[in-house]
Amino acid sequence: MNNVGLLYVGAVLMINGLMLLGRIPSRSAAVLNLFVGALQCITPTVLIIQAHGEPQAILGASGLYLFGFTYLYVGIVNLAGFEAEGIGWFSLFVAFAALVYSGLSFFGPGNDPVFGVIWLAWALLWTLFFLVLALGKTRLTRFTGWTTLLLSQPTCTIPAFLLMTGSYQTSGTLAAIAAGVFVVLIALAGVLASRSEGWVGSNAAAPA
C-alpha cells in the first residue's frame, strides 16, 4: 500500500470513528473523506500506469481503490444526505476482498504477515459497517465507532511512518504481537462502548 496514502487513511479513520461517536458532524467529516478518497483513487491509478503490466505491482496498487471508493462514497452520502445502506453493502464486498488481501499477505509472493494481520483488522471494521449500515444493527454503532478510533493509528498511521522512515519490519513473531495488540484494543472498544452511553452514535455513514 502506498505509504503516504496509508498515513491519511489513519486520519480519516480517526475522524470517522469520532463521527460515529457523535463528536464530529457528518458534513464536517465528509470533507476529509472526499480528500482522502480522491488521493486513494489517484494514487493507485498512477501506480498501475507505471507498473507496465507487472502483475505484482498492479495487485499491490489495486487494494487502494477499496479505501478510495469507500471514502468518496461516504463523503458524497454525508454531504448530500443520501441513505447509507449502499455503503453498508459495499462494505461487505470490501470485507471479503480484505480477507483475500490478508491471505495474499500471509502466503503470497513477498509475504508480509504483519500486513496480513492488519488486513484482517480492516476486514473486521468493514464487516462492522456492513452490520450497522446495511442490516441496521444500530446497537453496534458505539462499538464500531470505538473500534474504528482505536484501530486507526496502529493499523495505518504507525506502519505508514515506519515504512516511510525505513524502519518497518515483518515476521511471524511481530504479526502475533500485532494480533495480540489488536485483540486488546477491540476488547477495550467493547468496554468503552458499554460505558459511553452519553456518546450518542451518529446516523451518518462512516466506513473504515
Automatic annotation (TrEMBL):
Alphabetically ordered keywords of this record: Cell membrane, Membrane, Transmembrane, Transmembrane helix, Transport
* Top-level lineage group: Bacteria
Matching Pfam families: AmiS_UreI
Q: How does it sit in the membrane?
A: Multi-pass membrane protein
Q: Which residues cross the membrane?
A: 6-24, 31-51, 57-80, 87-108, 114-136, 148-168, 174-193
Q: Looking at the keywords, is Isomerase present?
A: no
Spell out the family assignment given in the record's similarity comment. Answer: Belongs to the AmiS/UreI family.
Indicate what this protein is called per its UniProt record.
AmiS/UreI family transporter
What is the organism of origin for this protein? Pendulispora albinea
Taxon lineage: Bacteria, Pseudomonadati, Myxococcota, Myxococcia, Myxococcales
